[in-house]
């Protein structure tokens, strides 16, 4: 389904670089490091050297969305110095990518770090977008025939403008059939603290999302963001709905894995 | 009756709505229909360009709002339309009552007007012995049911045909029917008689054109035309932000409004009202009034960012596309304007204190901002209001009345600790490392989260650890699980 992008500025993709900074995000760090490793290995297979700044923690998004901008700014400020060279910063998440690309400029407006924040925003990329449009990745499918559904996170879709990217990457996999769920563009109900502050509304949303994924007939879905993954997968598991999720990067790496180069 | 002062009961109402299968089904069905109609209506249009034009027209008007309002008053007065200014809903109500009383008017027939809902005008007039009858079908149904609108464009969208038929049967003796045409015809007949007898017609305004002194009003049922032409006196009410500079500014806005709202290419009626009946004319009201209501709008106007709230053309597309609104329906919000626009507008009208639950009731999915015909950055404004509510930015101290109302010491402490940890990478790595080592002890219950989901499982080794092991030369196979 074609969707119009509201605030997404025009993207100008850089030429393929030798090196990138990898910003892993806190959810990947703690809960889904395999998705992070998969992303790193996909980049490396494309001949890119991946720099993983040791000082990375969190982009500041949770505090920012909750209105605690002082705290968000102090955390984000501690991240700004992690990327001294002009290499692109790739993020395996639409949400954290969106924070850095769309919200850092606002967060640091009127501060001494403003121009630094703007520069970082301009070279932040969502990882699947980067693989497709900067690396021009060509995937060779090594897996058994399978069917998957995909949920693109709202931030990947609307802040990073990458709604078409996941499906395009999956379509490169010869043995993978992608099925689309009803109301594909609708939010899964995660929304960070929203899921805690408004648990019942969030639950109604994730329940509908899981149902529409199940209705596709697929037993597996992939997604761009760990928040959605935790939410949808966790709900399906708790209510015994026959669908399991994984990060799209893990899926892509498994399908095209180690043997492929 | 739901009023703006009952906003605080958001959670219990959400709970009730979520557990009401009829409400859930009515909204889901209606919103699905509206979303697909909108999409079809814009097919073949350069929508981004059009939205850009719409946004520009509104921005230009807001940039010189004070001047345009003056110009509007001058032009309207020259056209014979009497202009009244009201700072508060109470004042607006009083002005309307005085106009009615001066004419000895006992009955008012109303076209659709959300500003009159904002004023709770019907209740006020009734209390002063003046009958107020809604003539828009949706409003008519809502009034009959003694409810409030659940949607700004389709006030009775929360009811299905069966429920409406039952209500009409009960209240007016109309035969029960699933035939919408029949029900409509029956309502119309009853309304026609009222039109003929009404002393005053009251309507809203979609756009007030400063340059020409024209009031533009769009509608589908013809009741707007009748309201503004049949009774001897017409009173229009609107918010001060509805002004546009030139007649040509309406062009993109008129292309956007019906398509965004109901998926129509054009509304059945587009009324351009430029004055009372002239001596040589055979119909039209002998007197026309415009009441311009502020009600907090000029406060919004003072703030460069919040100002965007005033661009709104009240199309309702943001609620049609809102996953929260679709689940809980319009009445849950307990405010005149529900859904995303309500969440960013109402805190200004009723105070952040009363409206404190509104900005948080969003997953910030961005669907509203994506469809808004005048490109209001709704999610950004929601975050701004959250910031105001917790007084969360010392660089940009809060200004709104009621700011800081949600600031709680405990919550601030949590965010401060979170920020402290995340600013100390070594400690962060140590803490996450210890956390993953203790993953066997991870609680299975995490409050609200695990009521509906399993808890996410901590990985055996963080990405940080895996990467540092890798750098120290451990082979990858070992690093991978
Ligand atoms: S905020 Fe935008 S989408 Fe919502 S009612 Fe106003 S104009 Fe329409």
UniProtKB/TrEMBL annotation, chain A:
Origin: domain of life: Bacteria
InterPro entries (alphabetical): Cys_rich_dom (IPR004017)
Single Gene Ontology MF annotation: oxidoreductase activity
A Pfam family the protein falls into: CCG
Domain (Cysteine-rich) ranges: 21-101, 148-232
A Gene Ontology cellular-component term: cytosol
Protein name as annotated: Oxidoreductase
Record organism: Terasakiispira papahanaumokuakeensis
Taxonomic lineage: Bacteria, Pseudomonadati, Pseudomonadota, Gammaproteobacteria, Oceanospirillales
UniProtKB/TrEMBL annotation, chain B:
InterPro entries associated with the record: 4Fe4S_Fe-S-bd, 4Fe4S_Fe_S_CS, FTHF_cligase-like_sf, Helical_ferredxn, LUD_dom, LutB/LldF, LutB_C, NagB/RpiA_transferase-like
Domain of life: Bacteria
Residue segments, region Disordered: 460-481
Keyword Electron transport: yes
Domain 4Fe-4S ferredoxin-type: 303-332
Lineage summary: Bacteria, Pseudomonadati, Pseudomonadota, Gammaproteobacteria, Oceanospirillales
Keywords: 4Fe-4S, Electron transport, Iron, Iron-sulfur, Metal-binding, Repeat, Transport
Protein name (record): Iron-sulfur cluster-binding protein
Gene3D superfamilies on file: Alpha-helical ferredoxin, NagB/RpiA/CoA transferase-like
PANTHER family membership: LACTATE UTILIZATION PROTEIN B
GO molecular function: 4 iron, 4 sulfur cluster binding; metal ion binding
Organism in which the protein naturally occurs: Terasakiispira papahanaumokuakeensis
PROSITE patterns: 4FE4S_FER_1, 4FE4S_FER_2
GO BP field: lactate metabolic process
NCBIfam families given in the database record: LutB/LldF family L-lactate oxidation iron-sulfur protein
